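PT: before anyone asks, these are the final sequences, not the draft ones from last week. 849 residues across everything. Please model them as a single complex and drop the result in this thread when it's through.
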Amino acid sequence: MEGGGRAVGSTFKRLLSVAALAAVVFSWQGGPAGAQAVPRQLRIAIGIDADRLDPAEQTTTTIANIVDYMFETLVDLHPVKNEIVPRLATRWQVSRDGLTYTFTLRRGVTFHDGTPFNAHAVKFTLERLQDPRIAVALRFLVTPIKSVEAVGDDTVRITLSKVTPTFLADLTTTQFAIVSPAAVERAGDRWRAAPVGGGTGPYVFKEWRRGDAILLERNPAYWGKKGPFEELLFRVVPDAGTRLTQVLAGDVHQAMLPPAPDVKGLRRNPRVTVVEAPSDRVIFIVLNTQWGPLRDVRVRQALNYAVNKKAILASVLFDLGTVVHSPCPSMMFGYSPVQEGGWPFNPVRAKQLLAEAGYKDGFEVNFFSPTGRYIQDFQFAQAVAAQLRNVNVRANVGTMDWPSYVAMIQTPLERTRVQMIVLGWAWPVLDCDGVLYGQFHSSNHPPRGLGPAYYHNPRVDQLLDQERQEPNVEKRKALLKEAQQIIWNDAPWIWLWSQKWYVVTARNLEGVRIHPIEKWTALCEPEAPAVGHHCVTWK
Amino acid sequence: MSSSLGTYLLRRLGLAVPTLVGVTIIVFALIRLIPGDPARLILGLQASEDEVQRLRIELGLDRPLYVQYARFFGRLVRGDLGRSAVTREPVLGEITHRLPATVQLAVASITVAALGGMTAGVISATRQYSALDYLVMTVALFGVSLPVFWLGLMLMLLFSVYLKWLPAGGYGTFAHLVLPAVALAAFSVAIIARMTRSSLLEALNQDYVRTAHAKGLRQRVVIVRHALKNALIPVITVIGLQFGTLLGGAILTETVFAWPGMGRLLVGAITARDYAVVQGVVLVFAALFTLVNLAVDLLYAYVDPRIHYG
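LR: through. Structure below.
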């Protein structure tokens, strides 16, 4: 899934708005007004408009975040405990062979249209995901499902065609949210844009005004803790500076991704709260392991030694990232730190390795970065190029628009222009398999997959194939650990950081948390043992 | 005159047809010449290649370009602009959702620009080389030079964050319209003011103006009824062109003020390579521009009776 916050405009434009906003952020004198009445309507500024609201067809994390207020999944992932917890299913059992999952459903839950939530609805939802006419972006998460059987009213049995260790985690993605069969049939063609009455969640769909806003109403019959606000309005505000201005002006109560350069000042502003947390989006520089000097592992390691990650994070990224210690970010299942503190900054060692590889005088390389796709992307690419120059590697930095960028990545090896590129990778399921298999298994070389390092290590392929079929948790962890170690030292990327995700809220809005998959808390987090219930409130 | 006007109208509208067909060909070719795969962009980097290929086939992207164009054109003559690849909704619906916001903003903004610009121009021309003239023309210079996204943010800081008089962007009420209309008008005000000034100065040097003064008419009557009326033709041309441009979607203004207009729809469609929407929106823009130009030409005859059509 793609992140929702695409910055709009040129560097110049950003500089100007940054200067303007910095003036406000720093000069504000007035303090908070104290406790205020709960607003009737909670307003949240988002960066992009929805493409569609059917949970099954979600492609964008931010829109899925909105859909989560209306639709619920069987199981959920607790953002703090990082474990699978109940939502619409209260209990589940996995058969010994790992092929059959039996879910006990929550009783007394009704859809917004008044029809009951039951085993039939679950069967309908999961079978609908297999319908080729429904554009399910992550259909490979659906394909392991062989059959769904309603065993009585509140028990569902799902049989898989192959062992899928991530299956429960997969079920937490928005596309698996349970929909009302009656509502889907009634809405027909309009379902995508107006999913009326179709969910079980705390808020009900009311209106989608194209390009402007999405409006939801409180579900008075919600089975869980009801939301404190009568209405939720998600306003589409593409410009990051405007989103921040709206929060400062009190027009909205929460805004996603204000301009990165303003975050430092906002952290000190008493009127607002910056909520930030590391996300599972790893940012890295792909090294085409089958191009010129980069074919030599010593060269790739040298480039890793040559880049000072911590300095760039502090000076270019406003600390909106944390250095990675492994190919897989820390919040994912199977994470195993390979090198604490990341790949060390050691230009002397870098020069030695380059000399050993026969590149004493360095080499020239084309280096592309998108602009405005990831936090400070083009800016940090320039910082990296400057550091590489210290070890005689002359990286020519270029940029292009995102569609052209993706087209460049999708090209097969014979025709690729990729030598060195900035890329970010996030996965909707917090499991190392998502990043390791997607980027480092040789079956995912473009155009088949989107792993543009063209990395190929038979041992890694073998480990990843095994890990995908290993039902035993500990054994699987060991396989993932070995894979992470090999990949890290093979250095098909310059390992950088995992990016933070952040929103700014009015001071009175409390309890908003950031989920590692680049979402914010949709009202209440599921109950987890030892952590309990956690909800968004207005103080 | 009326029948010749009718013929003129028909001929102009007839001429618009090949223009619009030309536009469809250019847009169709241009948007496909730049790299980018709509199916991949819609489904995201993490989607599987099988799913992406399925969508390509569904969108007809696997067919040769001329087949795609023939399909598009065939639908077009039946009044069907196709469906958005992103939302799967009819393009016509996407446009009609956004058109009112664009028209509202364009009309409000051109009204502000025409009134403000002409007033400033008249003030400036009648007091040529005075301090007021220099002041007006300096302000006009700023109006042309200030980037709208910066001006927009400044207006919001002043009127929304500090004074709390107006909302900081968004759509719905008249209050929402004020700031974007003013920010967007700034450029046109300046252009119109400068054009009014130079055109009026030229008229003020004509013999008929001296005659009017000699007749003992008051200064105001001379300027408004004699000089200004004759100076209007180039001003109307500029206003018409500006209005056409504004209808073409004020992309930056719409972005800064979170205004749900056509400009943002177009930019979004280009970044998603949503071909059908790009084609549809550009076609509508071209048609609107043609119509505005026609209306301006007709206005000439009203302002200057010497102009005949036929």
